Amino acid sequence: MSGLTPDARKWLLATGFAVKDEQLWLEALTHGSTGNERDYQRLEFLGDRVLGLTIADWLYHRNNGAEGALAQRLNALVSRSTCAALAREIGAAKHINLGKQARDDGAADSENILGDVMESLLGANFVEAGYDHSRDLIRAIWRGKVEGGAGSSKHPKSALQEWAAGNRRKGPEYEIIERSGPDHAAQFTVRVQVRNVGEAEATAGSKQEAETEAARLFMERYG
């Protein structure tokens, strides 16, 4: 595996990451499509837990409501779509190491990959600098999302479930009707239906996100 580029190192430091072991940070930025034995998956696993704990602690101390409301906000703030949006915001896309075919397929802008890389960078930072530094870094990157109220409104799937129950309908049924694209940039098309009411379809980079969007479209149409 080649070394971390000077541009990537400069970007990491400017963003606030604690860069010491360059091979660790190279691993955090390397996708499996490169064929390297070490890619970002293990660091992503770690970063996901660091992020979840940090956001949960932050919301708890902000006293943002009861357990249900806290869980709703937590899920939104640590979601892949939020992680991907913030990865784009800090400029991660151009520093991800991808195989040629993956890059040609547009993987650098894949929501799945950007979300994973955001978490892998947090995992690498935890290894290098520990929890306190990682917590402060997450608070700096996520501040706009937390203070902007991301996740405060009811999740579309929960809203649809409650709407169906309130209208004495059978619960919504979700079905994957198409999966397309390569593994690193897969697209899922999901249909949601409520019997004797109607249906809606949506496509996204993960099954969960497609279900969420389909539920939102259903509520716009029938709710």
UniProtKB/TrEMBL annotation:
Its EC number is 3.1.26.3. It catalyses: Endonucleolytic cleavage to 5'-phosphomonoester. The active site is at 48, 119. It holds the Pfam family dsrm. Its cofactor is Mg(2+). GO terms for cellular component: cytoplasm. InterPro entries: dsRBD_dom, RNase_III, RNase_III_dom, RNase_III_sf. Keywords: Cytoplasm, Endonuclease, Hydrolase, Magnesium, Metal-binding, mRNA processing, Nuclease, RNA-binding, rRNA processing, rRNA-binding, tRNA processing. The keyword tRNA processing applies. Its main location: cytoplasm. Digests double-stranded RNA. Involved in the processing of primary rRNA transcript to yield the immediate precursors to the large and small rRNAs (23S and 16S). Processes some mRNAs, and tRNAs when they are encoded in the rRNA operon. Processes pre-crRNA and tracrRNA of type II CRISPR loci if present in the organism. This is Ribonuclease 3. It comes from Allopontixanthobacter confluentis.
